[in-house]
Amino acid sequence: MKITSLDQIPSVPMQMEGAVGVVKQVPLGKADGAPNFSFRVFTIIPGGNTPYHIHDAEHLNYILAGEGVLVD
Predict the structure, then answer these.
(1) How many CB atoms lie within 10 A of CB 35?
(2) What is the pTM of this model?
């Protein structure tokens, strides 16, 4: 079990073509011994965005503050 605080997780700029004003944190993932699970936190500044894209697996979008548009 990993116990951490988000303020202890490094923030790195999102490396995806078309992403603007987005940083990513990975509190839990492969580096922590979770080969089939990834917990990622994205912070998007006002006016920022990620480009339209799809995923091969289920995932969750949970907005903590602000508002945005999710294309399904």
Answers:
(1) 8
(2) 0.83
Amino acid present at 48: G
What is the side-by-side order of every strand in the sheet holding 12-13? Answer: 12-13, 20-28, 39-49
Q: Which amino acid is at 16?
A: M
Q: How far apart are CA 24 and CA 11, in angstroms?
A: 5
On whether the CB atoms of residues 24 and 38 are closer than 8 A, the answer is: no
pLDDT at 72 over 80: no
DSSP string, 1-55: -----GGGSPPEE--STT-EEEEEEEEESGGGT-TT--EEEEEEEEEEE------
Q: What is the pLDDT of residues 36-68, one digit of tens each?
A: 888 999 999 999 999 999 888 888 888 889 988
